[in-house]
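Co-fold these.
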Amino acid sequence: EDKVVQSPLSLVVHEGDTVTLNCSYEVTNFRSLLWYKQEKKAPTFLFMLTSSGIEKKSGRLSSILDKKELFSILNITATQTGDSAVYLCAVASGTYKYIFGTGTRLKVLA
Amino acid sequence: DTAVSQTPKYLVTQMGNDKSIKCEQNLGHDTMYWYKQDSKKFLKIMFSYNNKELIINETVPNRFSPKSPDKAHLNLHINSLELGDSAVYFCASSRLGTGAYEQYFGPGTRLTVT
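Predicted complex below.
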């Protein structure tokens, strides 16, 4: 059965810290891995990764995929309270199916 | 100019009732989805539709019936509501092509069954 596992489940850090969120997967017909941020409402898209070893970067956030070891990491440097959210990892399997992990709940303290 | 909209945002109803949630996207996407998110924030796909045609039904009870009158709309009707149906339901859409594309999510409908 396809699965996506995220760790840790939750994390509490102080502003300025750097965090690394992990996502491992076992999915048939892998097409891409996506990261989303969910605050109070809908998940919002952060990154999509399709190739191993190529880092995607947006401001203080970056992510990389390892298709051999079947995992991805999301790094957030110099965290701010506005980074507090649930971070969701999803894997696109085939054309129409996205399998989500359980999410990592990040809380950044001022 | 909301990309993916859902109505209603909140729905409180009693067990046994029938209810509907509507979803519309103005992004011109071909593919739409329904997800259920439980209290632990786990998002599970329920249905995928492409251009009004049902593609994926992830072992959802047949009390749930999606309907897509056109490719911009995907509604969800739920019959005989049960306590376990309480959750947040998200509609999403994406482009379709040879590569994978990110999904755009609606604001969610919080369903509470009492």
